[in-house]
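Please, structure for the following, as tokens.
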Amino acid sequence: MEVLVTGAGGFIGYHCCEKLLARGDRVVGVDNLNDYYSVALKERRLSELRRFGDRFRFLHADLADSAFASKAGEIYDRIIHLGAQAGVRYSIENPDAYLRSNLMGHLNILELARRRGSSHLVYASSSSVYGGNQSLPFRVEDRADHPLSLYAATKRADELMSESYAHLYRLPQTGLRFFTVYGPWGRPDMAVWRFTEAVLTGKPIQLFGQGRMRRDFTYIDDVVDGVMAALDDPPLDDGEEKAGGSRSPHRLYNIGNNRSEELERLIELLEQACGRPALRQLLPMQPGDVTETYADITAIQTELGFKPKTSIDEGIPRFVEWFLSFKKP
């Protein structure tokens, strides 16, 4: 099978490409390699994928470019669309980047999938779409129309655009709402990376919300297992109601660890893995943030057999071990 993976130089994209290649698929990876965080890190991920030889091809392209579809070339059996402008807080500083990458980029992928007859489009959404929802855990049946950031609003808009394409063109799609993904080759702007770096360099960890926030931390290997399970099982166009409420061939799933962890527990594990104490700086809640995330994974568990295997007690030491190796001169 040949799979197009957007955001191939990104954290989840890299790991999905590696999984597909390891199981024998051919992959065309796309990324614009923007400088939201280290381009060198993205290049290092891509260099890891090039060890698979000609079964991996990289296309340096901007998904928001209207000419992208013509550059993308051949017909793809399936598409994993992970390319987007990430970051809740950055969306407050640079909203234009989100409208371009997350809305135009998603539309262009929908058009590519429709025109090339792809049999399944799996795309990244986010737990951020739940916004100020007070009901825990977050369920795909919950309303998601009160976003607290522009990033969240663009991800919810992507879901709605996908629903319209599933209805109009019967394009099979699966949207995945990811919950705080971490692990080797992660993103430097995410909490686990930032906290680890702070502990190792003796700098204070900035804890917003006075450190009282909780997150559903999900290890990357579990996330990739969920993506592959979804990719290999396209939704049927049978008129039955899908997860998320659609009667078109479009469903929505949460991918989380199904546990909400206190940030203090995360820091304790980092202290143990790094072998040194952490300094803590308590700060007010930042605009766009939510106090707690917690995924109800009943739908994906029941329908696809997804079951996260990695607790933070296992995942955090693994990340720190990788981080120390990655940072060696």
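Residues 254 and 297 are 6 Å apart (CA to CA). The chain has one domain: 2-186+218-256+300-308.
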